[in-house]
Design the sequence.
């Protein structure tokens, strides 16, 4: 692979595509409830996946417990991440959801120590700190210092999204472990189909635990959200992650994925009219600097 088309570049592309989901999902949730959206999104992605990978999935050689069980664990972590993130979007803004989801940049190195017994470098820890500060400032865009100090409340949507970020961090670690041992097609298919099945099962009862009435409108906002998230932000990004993340340490991958809330902020600015004030600009700059800082010293070490 060339110096430009590196695994890190593809992970950033995935993060940018994920960043676009916050706005389109937020708009789509005006039309349908969370689990109905997840069900349609992942059933569409699942059908496409089955058509693309049918030979690999139905091969007798791949009907192995040492493939199926790890793939199930990966799928469960992704399911819980998407579920908590999507429900959280009902109660919080797209920008705040992007910031809270970006908290996996903190969880990944901690989980890497616990699960893989690997200690990230000092440079990675410093970069994580810089990125966290940057993401926080992005979430506080448009506020004065006094307003930031007074608005540190932690709402229900923020808490749910933070739980989702924790499961996304587990997902990143599991992908690092299992993508080197299991065909990417199996990991991708199990993840997508499990989320589709569970979301379909939970949709009829979600009004109970959301404690609100359900309104369903299959309008343009819904279909834009479905097409974007199922094709670009599910099939394409999952392929990228299972193929290229194995070449990048998990903590560094988490830093690269932190481009996700940065892009979600800019898209919210363009689509929803959210203004980029001084605090947001500083936060975006810090986040980008943290990512570049984590990569300093590695670029020149790459082979020509």
Sequence:
């Amino acid at each position: 692979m060339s110096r430009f088309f590196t695994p890190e570049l593809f992970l950033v592309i995935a993060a940018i595509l994920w960043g676009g989901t916050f706005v389109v999902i937020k708009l789509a949730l005006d039309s349908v409830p969370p689990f109905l959206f997840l069900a349609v999104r992942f059933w569409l992605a699942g059908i496409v996946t089955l058509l693309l990978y049918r030979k690999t999935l139905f091969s007798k050689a791949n009907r192995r417990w040492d493939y199926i069980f790890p793939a199930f664990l990966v799928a469960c972590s992704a399911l819980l991440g998407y579920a908590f993130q999507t429900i959280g979007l009902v109660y919080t803004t797209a920008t705040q959801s992007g910031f809270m989801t970006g908290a996996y940049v903190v969880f990944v190195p901690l989980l890497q120590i616990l699960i893989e017994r690997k200690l990230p470098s000092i440079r990675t820890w410093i970069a994580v700190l810089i990125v966290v500060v940057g993401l926080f400032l992005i979430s506080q865009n448009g506020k004065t210092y006094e307003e930031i100090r007074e608005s540190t409340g932690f709402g229900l949507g923020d808490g749910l999204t933070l739980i989702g970020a924790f499961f996304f961090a587990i997902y990143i670690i599991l992908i690092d472990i299992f993508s080197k041992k299991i065909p990417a097609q199996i990991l991708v298919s199990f993840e997508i189909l499990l989320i589709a099945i569970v979301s379909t099962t939970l949709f009829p009862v979600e009004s109970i635990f959301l404690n609100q009435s359900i309104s369903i409108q299959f309008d343009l906002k819904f279909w834009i959200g479905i097409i974007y998230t199922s094709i670009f932000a599910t099939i394409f990004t999952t392929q990228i992650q299972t193929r290229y993340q194995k070449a990048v340490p998990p903590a560094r991958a988490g830093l690269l994925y932190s481009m996700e809330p940065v892009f979600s902020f800019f898209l919210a600015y363009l689509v929803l009219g959210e203004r980029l004030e001084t605090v947001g600009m500083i936060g975006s700059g810090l986040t980008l600097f943290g990512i570049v800082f984590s990569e300093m010293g590695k670029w020149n070490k790459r082979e020509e």
Residues 56 and 185 are 7 Å apart (CA to CA). Residues 65-91 form the longest helix (27 residues). Residues 299-304 have pLDDT under 50 and may be disordered.
